[in-house]
Specification:
Two copies of one chain form a homodimer. Chain A is an alpha+beta fold and 134 residues long. Chain A has one domain (8-133): HIT family, subunit A. Chain A is built from three helices and five strands; from the N terminus they run H-E-E-E-H-E-E-H. Chain A has a five-stranded antiparallel beta sheet. In chain A, a hairpin with a 6-residue loop joins strand 2 and strand 3. The N and C termini of chain A lie far apart (32 Å). The A-B interface holds A 46-49, 53, 56-57, 59-61, 63-64, 67-68, 71, 78-87, 89, 98, 105-108, 110-111 and B 46-49, 53, 56-57, 59-61, 63-64, 67-68, 71, 78-87, 89, 98, 105-108, 110-111.
């Protein structure tokens, strides 16, 4: 049986916040946007429709939980949710807190310029906030 | 009680494919990408988390149904799913068939250049295919 393993590019560009029922929750290492990523811990899945129905239902509720918490923590105007996978095929769902005037507003964050890495203390504080607040 | 009404900008830039259990299904009028949009027929909703849990579950299954059908019809390499709403706040979920070499690959389609309108016969044939194949 195939075992879930986080894609090396996702691992390199994010930090682990925690493991939820279905998904590993990651913080994208890009201080321009409060940006979380849910990766269902299932092997060899690249599309939502490849998950079984009960996993899809859990994924929807995990997206909801992240969206509510991230909006509360950041005061975002809008939450953007996206599952693209054109670069990294492993299924992963972006949930990004957006506000007018952010670096990509009103366009999408994906493919927009270069990431701005967090300093480690800012990043670690934010991860602690996320663990408490989501 | 507030009544669902499709946002005028979504209406102007798409054609109706049909009404499903929860959502109105639209074809975006952009021949560069096979691009469908699900709009839950609920008034005053701009975020996934504002839907109630049973609507969210239906939305996930409607996303799945579109994704499977669109991939079959188009032979797409990858399905992109996104709920952004930075320009039009009314909740709507994009489902886009992507392939290497398309006009925006591997970047997102949102905000990429100007739409290329369908000719009416090509568009109507595609809508017929979608009604049969989804």
């Amino acid at each position: 049986m195939a075992v879930f393993q986080l894609h090396e590019r996702l691992a390199a560009e994010s930090c682990v916040v925690g493991d939820w029922t279905l998904s590993r929750l990651l913080l994208a290492d890009d201080a321009r946007f409060p940006w979380l990523i849910l990766v269902p811990r299932r092997a060899r899945i690249s599309e939502i429709q490849e998950l079984d129905p009960s996993d899809r239902s859990i994924l929807m509720e995990e997206i909801t939980r992240v969206s509510i918490g991230l909006r509360k923590i950041t005061g975002a105007t809008k939450i953007n949710v996206g599952a693209l996978g054109n670069v990294v095929a492993q299924l992963h769902v972006h949930i990004v807190a957006r506000h007018p005037g952010d670096a990509a507003w009103p366009g999408p964050v994906w493919g927009h310029g270069a990431p701005l890495r967090y300093g480690s203390s800012v990043r670690d504080n934010f991860i602690e906030n996320l663990r408490r607040g989501l």
